[in-house]
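Hey, I was hoping to borrow your eyes for a little while. A protein chain has come my way and I'm curious about its shape. Take your time with it, there's no hurry, and the full record follows here:
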Amino acid sequence: MSIPKEPRQLMITIMYLVLTAMLALNVSAEVFNAFKLVDESLKESVRQLTEENMMLPARINELAQRDPETFQKYVELAPQVREMADDLVQYLEDIIEDLIEEAGGYVEVNGERRILNEKHTEAANRILVNRDVITGEPGEGARLLQKLLQAQQDFMAMIPEEDLERHPFSGIAISVDPDAWRDSETARESWEDFMFSRMPLVAVLPIFRKYINDIRLTENNILTYYLQRIGGEDIVFDQFYVVAAPQSSYVIRGDNYEADIFLSAASSALPDMEILINGRSIPIEDGIGRFVTGTSTVGVNRYTATIRYSNPVTGEVSEFTNEFQFEVGLRSANVAAEKMNVFYIGVDNPVSISAAGIPTAQLNITAEGAGISLTPIEGSSNRFNVRVTEPGDASIILSGGGLERTAFEFRVRRIPDPVANFAGESGGVALGDGQFRAQRGVIATLPNFDFDARCEIAGFRLVRIARRQDPQIADNAGATFGPEAQRLVDQAAPGDRYFFENVRARCPGDATTRRINDMGFTIR
């Protein structure tokens, strides 16, 4: 009994990508419904896999009787694989229940048990991300990552090494990238912070359900591998399920809905089959049917898929039917700062504006707060330079084309303090007298600042302390040495000490100068 790995993994991957894409959007009631739809689809996939996996060990034991001495190892390994998967699934289910309880538990609605607070955003933070305030131990998310990584190795160890030489195995479906947070566009402190921080409960549950599905699929792949080693190509499938792998379970009205319809128990050698959607036949290629339909009706849309399949061993023709659904939502939009998640006064702050399903001519873009203004970037239809004039909060507001008024909030700050620099140093070092006298003034730099901005030195006080002499002082306006300051610089001799005090600078957007770092140098 073999499940086609690529189609099922494609289904799960697409659902997970849909979930990730939704997190980037303004979370509306329609999006929350989409999360629940994805979660229900994953639950159904897990249920089908679990039922199939329960029957596989008995089938392995039955076929192993052909040659007990040769195949006994698979009979012994199968329960271990099942136990390993059950333990890991139970661990994930326990976390799910802890998250729901942290968010307020369940409530009875018309005799049906529902989650009380699906939009709760702190449950995942407290359980999965935050460290223990007493012990300093990381949240459960860190342990979850390690368990998933260890599970990849433990499941792979269930494949006998002698088999791998002739029959490679690539059925470990548990997909987790421990370094994904390092490449995130926003600052993240850990994998669990990247995956779960500030996530609403309804968005966290499908992620856990995906991991459970990955575990059950890995379990199924391993048990199927055992069957193939025992029975080869003559294994007869006795359980079948119709599965839909949509390109997206949540689409914009007016776009097409696309889904791959396939038989979950099929192998790569399946013969031709017939697939019907609501009684109408659809094209089939490599055992997969492509279903395309319009999406004019907003809300949940349902359809019935039927597969007629001829068993390659018995020749018996069987028919399998299942119902599926997808949700059509309204238009949505997003505003993303391209450099930092704040706007800085006095510089261009580029932003990208995306609006799914909304013609550019119908999209209205306005801004308010912090003296904000937007200027289109030449050569681009969705990129703008933002200018702000005062600290605080600013909003970019999108509307029109069927999109409700949606505001995106940003913090506004002054450019960070620059660093005073003389001869390539910011003080605390010894300079040669010739090198010191060759300088013409002080400059201001902005290290690690991504924007094209330049700050100017407005003035400073230069103090020279020579051996056995009173301090000499010159107040200088601007960055370049004036006559008095230049006279002190020209006197530089080994052993002298120079101090740049009360250094003041002005950055773009500054109404007044600001005090920055002092510098001190010894002449050698």
